[in-house]
Amino acid sequence: QFPLLSKCLLLQKLCSEIPEIPSHLHTLHLPDFPGPAESFELCAKFCYGITITLSAHNIVPIRCASEYLQMTESVETGNLIQKLDAFFISCILNGWRDTIVVLQSTKAFPQLSEDLGITTRCVEAIASKILAKPSKISYSRSIREDISCNGSEGYYRHNNNNNNSYSNNKGWWGEDLAELGIDLYWRTMIAVRSRIPSVIIGDALRIYVSRWLTNLSSAGSSSDCEKDRVVLESVISLLPVEKGAVSCSFLMKLLKASNILKVSSSSRKELARRVGFQLEEATVGDLLVPCLAKNAENVMYDVDIVTTILEVFMSRGRSPPTSPSRERSRRSSSAAAASHGCKIKVARIIDGYLQEIAKDENLGLSKFVAIAEAIPEFARVEHDDLYKAIDIFLKGHPELDKSERKRLCRILDCKKLSLEACMHAAQNEKLPLRVVVQVLFFEQARATMSSNGQVTDDELPSNIKALLATNKISSKPATDSFTTNITKMPPDDQWSTVSGLKTPKSNISTLKMKLAEDDDDDVYDDFPDGFEKNSKIMSFCMIPSKPKRIFSKLWRPINRNVG
């Protein structure tokens, strides 16, 4: 008499608790009913023998509703729960897109879907399809499945038009999986990441980040920031451990996002550690991490995080605490050579980075010097880019006193400057005097070696000959193995060209004025060992009003170039 009661055990229990009153209508309340009214309507239609249409979009709410109403086999054979489970197993779990749609719909009923095993079975089905050969997967979406109370079932149509496009791509699943929320995405990735190449996992994470972490802003609502923060930290936890699985540029984007979203310090340190292991792949733009947090220094860029990255990178080449065996030593020889080349690449990147942060007038000298000194001496084949960074820093920090300028310039090796850089440095009034004198000395030494007999080696002091021999040996492999790339400068910041050089007379006058202002002994501090204040150098530094023959030779290469 009442089909709804005959198939729903819950309704039978509720009706049995109502006292029988003749000709009196009773109302049953279902305050905890899961899902919308449409789900109850479909359950009722099934009870009355009306055909219902199932799809990947409505099976979860109907399944939750039927569970709530207790439409089990114990109440009546062929009840709704049994038919829904059969449809779920035979149709939904066999299709790729349908499984993802069903998994997404479980977000509306998280606990009940978990209890019924819907979520877990969908995750397992997706994982098995990712691990299977793409040619064996059905990518179709179920169109409809008609089920009536008498057990007759309708049809299930397939659409396999796009199978070939999926089969040709190893990471074919990345974009589809990016539709999932982070909690379900994380569970699925955990299920597959140990059995899939790390590069493919990295590509999938990159797709997911581009889908969910766009237009980030620290000024957004707190709820949005919290959601983005959860997404970011979950992605960081899923990063493959293998080097190169994700690009250094992608890692730096995550690091910049972590600054905006203020993620935990442990997540930021993990990103910095990963960047440090592949820093040679970075660009200068990658390292420019905006400093958004309020601080006393009010600097533009987060220099501290780059310092941490550099420390991690440099720790890669440290010697082990115990001596390796011969076999291990032979195996590591090629790795050591690669490490040497990586350090040279990183040196060029860091020098370019120094040029950018040097423009920040709030950047302290100690932090600038700390980053510059973190690069080992052998890694800088030439010092032109470092010199430009120092020059930019001096221009942006005119308040530096004499001792601070000297401290800044101690990281510069004048022997590794090109002719163009030497010509600029010789006329740079912001440099300490001792640097100018060193530049002139080494340039004169180089000019002497290439002057074809104007001054023979026998005429040079022994300490200068030793210096030239050392410089020649140290510079030879650099020219054989590497091409010096001088960073291009903006038009308003270019070094003086040969045509713009001052005359020797004006240079001499400038040096005389500087010597008068800076009459101390530290001019000689950074010259090679054994270089004393002998008569020739003293006569050079005193600079008489009419330069002697040795000083006129100093400018001969420049005069020759000018002419």
UniProtKB/TrEMBL annotation:
Residues 317-336 are annotated as: Disordered. Residues 171-446 form the NPH3 domain. GO terms for biological process: protein ubiquitination. Pathway: Protein modification; protein ubiquitination. InterPro entries: NPH3/RPT2-like (IPR043454), NPH3_dom (IPR027356), SKP1/BTB/POZ_sf (IPR011333). Coiled coil: none annotated. Keywords: Ubl conjugation pathway. The keyword Ribosomal protein does not apply. Belongs to the NPH3 family. PANTHER family: OS12G0117600 PROTEIN. This is BTB/POZ domain-containing protein at1g67900. It comes from Phtheirospermum japonicum.
